[in-house]
Design a protein that fits this description.
This protein has helices at residues 17-34, 49-61, 80-93, 95-106, 109-112, 118-129, 153-156, 257-294, 306-332; strands at residues 137-140, 164-168, 171-178, 190-196, 207-213, 219-221, 238-246, 296-297, 300-301. With 333 residues, the chain is α+β, with helices and mostly antiparallel strands.
């Protein structure tokens, strides 16, 4: 496949020179490392031999693992628009890989914003920034019984969360069953677990996000699911059986603040998903346009036929509008 230039517009007043450099470098990695092997990736759903290599290139060699963390720990303090544009570029190459990479950093957002937790940052930032190994996060949100309703914080206020967290002295005791979070199935080093401290109540103060290292006694992960595509997005069941972690591992120590962080967290995730979709559509457009630029029908190039040109224009317009909207929302948050 030929190398494509990004000819779609960006709101340049919102994008720093550093962000431009990061995104351009990310695009080069996608062209060099991901696109040449992407037809092999679907069969890598279980072993993740190719995916793990690509994740190390993106997160360690390129440095995206350091992106959200404070500079004093070796982080970059990158903003959401930088993350979205990098996710968009990675999705051009493989949407599953982009999802896995994006969720690594997304997992730590509740401890970083809007109220940074200095204890947890000091505890986990060095594992992400001062290392030569992947430090993979996994947001364990969906419950086996309540599905994805738990994501709607404003609608449910934690009422349907089935995974419980009970304070026993200086430790949280966690019990529950989570379904299919990205980077489960043996990949993650740490989980951000959506819990309730008072099951069945509709109360923001009972909502908790607690960080659980994957090797904690009582944590069990199932085999990864085999899916139709998105193989880089490794998913499995996770069981928590009387899992004990320090009290300080709650994202925000003040009751109610985890719900505030979760709203911002889910909004950022939705915007990141928009960036994934734009990257996929950009690559579809590039492939279709390449075909229309080089194929003749009825004595002229496909792109010179009015109906074909109209379809290409509609796709390009939607990419432009979607990118502008996603960029705006990422700046608002």
């Amino acid at each position: 496949m030929m190398k494509f230039e990004d000819k779609f517009s960006l709101p340049l007043e919102w994008i720093s020179d550093e962000t431009k450099r990061i995104v351009e470098s990310c695009r080069e990695i996608v062209e060099k490392e991901i696109i040449p092997v992407r037809h092999e990736l679907d069969e890598d759903w279980k072993d993740h031999k190719i995916y793990d290599k690509l994740l190390k290139i993106i997160m360690l060699d390129f440095g995206l693992q350091c992106a959200p963390w404070p500079k004093e720990y070796g982080g970059l303090e990158s903003d959401l628009i930088t993350a979205c544009l990098c996710n968009e570029e990675m999705s051009r190459g493989d949407s599953g890989l982009s999802t896995a990479a994006g969720c690594i950093n997304w997992t730590f957002m509740p401890m970083l914003a809007p109220n940074p937790n200095p204890i947890l940052i000091e505890k986990f930032a060095p594992l992400a920034c001062q290392t030569d190994r992947l430090f993979v996060g996994c947001a364990a949100i969906t419950d086996a019984r309540s599905g994805s309703d738990v994501e709607n914080i404003d609608g449910t206020h934690g009422k349907y969360i089935a995974t419980t967290a009970e304070l026993d002295g200086d430790e949280w005791v966690i019990n529950g069953h989570k379904l299919w979070p990205t980077n489960s199935g043996g990949l993650a080093d740490i989980f951000a677990v959506f819990c309730t401290t008072n099951p069945g109540v509709e109360d923001d103060e009972a909502f908790a996000i607690i960080y659980v290292p994957a090797d904690t006694p009582g944590v069990k992960q199932g085999e990864p699911y085999r899916k139709a595509g998105m193989s880089g997005d490794k998913n499995s069941d996770i069981w928590f059986d009387n899992v004990r972690v320090p009290k300080e591992n709650r994202a925000n120590p003040k009751p109610g603040d985890d719900a505030i962080a979760a709203r911002m967290f889910m909004n950022a995730g939705n915007i990141g998903s928009s960036a994934h979709a734009i990257g996929i559509m950009r690559n579809c457009y590039e492939l279709v346009k390449e075909w229309c630029d080089t194929r003749e029908v009825g004595g002229k190039l496909l792109k010179e036929h009015s109906m074909t040109a109209s379809v290409l224009a509609d796709i390009a317009l939607m990419i432009e509008v979607s990118r502008s909207d996603t960029s705006l929302l990422s700046k608002i948050i």
